[in-house]
Amino acid sequence: MPPEKIDKSNTAFCDENTFTVFRYPNRKLFITGSKAYTNLSHIAERIRKGERMIALDRKTGDDITDYVLAQICALETSRGDRRYDSKILLSAVSSAKEETRVKIREEIDD
């Protein structure tokens, strides 16, 4: 069931150029402004158009923006998109939060 109300007071940044995505336990992604389910490719398109995104876990309310961005990178790389230079990815992996690495491992294991 889509969320009825959005509390943006806990977001890292928030303005008219920011959209909020909820990730449900079943892994579905929901964009609150358009009140529609979406996918990683659509989120990536919006980001490339200059919009900013904040992603929240619907169950816990945790900010999972970094996790969703990592998923977008992984998806596009698996499709043969080579826009992500290995130096950038190595830097990201070496400095990534443990929480993000754990979530990515969980996704791979599922």
Element string (H = helix, E = strand): EEEHEHHH
Percent in helix = 40-55%
Percentage beta strand: 15-25%
Query: Major beta sheet, specifics?
Result: 4 strands, mixed
Q: Rg, please?
A: 14 Å
How many beta-strand segments? 4
Structural class by secondary-structure content:
alpha+beta
Biggest sheet: strand arrangement: 3-2-1-4
Query: Could you tell me the mean pLDDT?
Result: 78
Domain module tally: 1
Q: State the distance separating the first and last CA atoms.
A: 24 Å
Given as residue ranges, the uncertain stretches (5+ residues, pLDDT < 50) are 1-13
Count the helices. How many?
4
Shape: globular
What's the oligomerization state? single chain
Outline:
This protein has helices at residues 40-48, 65-78, 86-95, 98-109; strands spanning 18-23, 29-31, 36-38, 52-57. The chain has 110 residues and is α+β, with helices and mostly antiparallel strands. The longest helix has 14 residues, at 65-78.
